[in-house]
Design goal:
The complex is a heterodimer of chains A (171) and B (158). Chain A is mostly beta strands and 171 residues long. Helix content of chain A is 11%, strand content 50%. Classes of the chains: A mainly beta (171), B alpha+beta (158).
């Protein structure tokens, strides 16, 4: 008795579905979804969802002020405000007070100042010799969404410099 | 922009590697479903547990992924060669009661596995099988020699 062969070396093609003329039709609700997705991707590609820092410079009464801060950041992401003060007056400045705006420092976590600030978010620097530059840093994590603005006030002796800061916190 | 590039690279990489791995590895889910589940969960997870807690980044990532999925399905439907590249083609495993050895080797499917699938479909002998096809979603479908109905594999035992 011969054993029936259970294998074949032939490699058949699977049955194919009949071919039809294929036309792409996108119904209105899919168009709406597509537009939404494309807009989100386009905004993302343009960098509008990314963190962005800016630097503003002011020069007033022999005092140069440079403030680097986030104009766009994410919720609960570490952000830094850096204030650099340089003075060119011939005499030293006894006291420089940097007052950080309350509006931008409310509802934040892990707030730290370098050097230390008072409870009213005011950093005081003393004895700044002519031509010297000092840097003040504030680090925090915003726990709010949306746009906030406030004035950063720098009092250097009798001189006062005000810088308007605006930050937008994305979810 | 970084998110868009990373999602696109991961999508293409996963799509390509899953096509190369073969159909059988993801028999319960189609490759697209696996990719979508993997990427969406990863993006959302990253957005939830990473330091930035960024919802906008997650939304951008998911939007890129969904656009790619839509584009792939659109191109696959419109152009058959694209569908062949992306989804593959079914393989005949049994033809007129005989194993097609070349395809069994290529898909790494042992006769035992086909036998088990036959039993699930209510088939006892190989002679009863006119055609057994490994479909693109990794499932094996049977056509009986006598033209009779095949019991569904998915039926649950009451």
């Amino acid at each position: 008795m011969t054993r029936k062969k259970l294998t074949t070396d032939r490699v058949p093609d699977p049955p194919e579905a009949p071919d039809i003329r294929r036309t792409v039709r996108i119904p209105p609700e899919q168009w709406a979804g597509l537009v939404l997705l494309i807009v989100i991707v386009a905004l993302g590609a343009a960098g509008l969802f990314e963190r962005k820092d800016t630097t503003v410079r002011f020069s007033q009464h022999d005092v140069d002020v440079q403030v680097t801060y986030p104009i766009r950041a994410h919720y609960r992401e570490d952000v830094q405000f850096v204030v650099r003060i340089e003075h060119h007056a011939p005499a030293p400045i006894d006291t420089v007070r940097i007052h950080f705006p309350a509006q931008l420092f409310r509802n934040v976590a892990d707030l730290q100042f370098l050097p230390d600030a008072s409870a009213a978010r005011e950093v005081t620097i003393t004895d700044v010799p002519p031509g010297d530059a000092r840097e003040i840093e504030a680090e925090l994590r915003p726990s709010y969404y949306g746009r906030r603005s406030g004035d950063l006030i720098i009092d250097a002796g009798t001189r006062r410099v005000t810088v308007k800061l605006t930050t937008f916190i994305l979810p | 922009m970084d998110t868009i590039i990373r999602v696109t690279i991961v999508y293409i990489f996963l799509l390509a590697t899953m096509r190369l791995l073969g159909k059988r590895e993801f028999g319960q889910l189609s490759p697209f479903e696996v990719i979508n589940l993997l990427i969406i969960s990863e993006i959302v997870q990253q957005a939830m547990i990473r330091d930035d807690y960024s919802l906008v980044t997650a939304l951008t990532g998911v939007s890129v992924l969904l656009l790619l999925v839509y584009l792939t399905s659109l191109l696959s439907y419109r152009f058959k060669p694209v569908a062949t590249v992306v989804e593959g083609t079914p393989s005949v495993l049994v033809m007129n009661g005989k194993y097609v050895v070349y395809n069994l080797d290529r898909e790494r499917i042992a006769p035992d596995e086909i036998q088990a699938e036959m039993h699930k479909s209510g088939l006892e002998q190989l002679d009863q099988v006119k055609l057994a096809v490994l479909e693109n979603d990794g499932k094996i479908t049977f056509i009986r020699t006598d033209g009779g109905e095949v019991q569904s594999n998915d039926e649950e035992i009451a």
